[in-house]
Amino acid sequence: MRHNKKHGMKLGTDASHTKAMKKSLTSALLANDRIKTTQPRAKAIRTDVDRVITWAKKGDLHSRRLAIAKLGDKELVREVFEKAAQGMWEGRNGGYTRIMKLGRRKGDNAEIVIIELVTEPVQPRAKKSDSVKPVVAAEAEKPAEAEETPAE
């Protein structure tokens, strides 16, 4: 029986082909930092890539073995773990990938996207109260300036 065996999107293939395709796309993305694929495939591999990078940031032996089992390539795992050790994703808690839409493919009208690794450091958001001046203070300053000018 296959109770509770569905893991993510099926992508129009059987389970073994889906698993192999996700493994291949994940390895290609981590090796090249950017790939072009269809939108459902990009969304399917996003969780796997984030999981491998999280393991790389952890950096222990168990995480390395899990990443080798997921990717199947020891050299690629070594490169990813080195990037993480150098602080490539330091300060970022998830969201290691970005998906940008390119448009539709001419042959079958499939949505084509670029999925890439995010390398920029995290920018903290500005607080809304810091950037907006209160209206009362701005109006109070204008009459004070008008009174200070001499009327000669």
Distinctive features:
3 strands; 50s Ribosomal Protein L17, Chain: A; alpha+beta; 52% helix
Task: Identify the strand order in the major beta sheet.
Answer: 1-3-2
| Low-pLDDT stretches | none
Task: Give the total of domains.
Answer: 1
Radius of gyration: 25 Å
- CATH-assigned fold name: 50s Ribosomal Protein L17, Chain: A
CATH class: Alpha Beta
Q: Which word captures the global form?
A: globular
CATH H-tier superfamily: Ribosomal protein L17
Helix and strand composition category? alpha+beta
Task: Give the topology.
Layout: H1 15-32, E1 34-38, H2 39-58, H3 61-71, H4 74-85, E2 97-104, E3 111-117, H5 128-131, H6 135-148
Antiparallel strand pairs: 1-3, 2-3
Helix pairs in contact: 1-2, 2-3, 2-4, 3-4
Structure, explained:
With 152 residues, the protein is an alpha+beta fold. The protein has a single domain, classed as Ribosomal protein L17 (50s Ribosomal Protein L17, Chain: A, Alpha-Beta Complex). It contains six helices and three strands; from the N terminus they run H-E-H-H-H-E-E-H-H. It has a three-stranded antiparallel β-sheet with strand order 1-3-2. Strand 2 (97-104) and strand 3 (111-117) form a beta hairpin. Helix 1 (15-32) crosses helix 2, helix 2 (39-58) runs antiparallel to helix 3 (61-71) and helix 3 crosses helix 4 (74-85). It is globular and about 90 Å long. It starts with 14 loop residues before the first helix and ends with a helix. The model has no long low-confidence stretch (mean pLDDT 85).
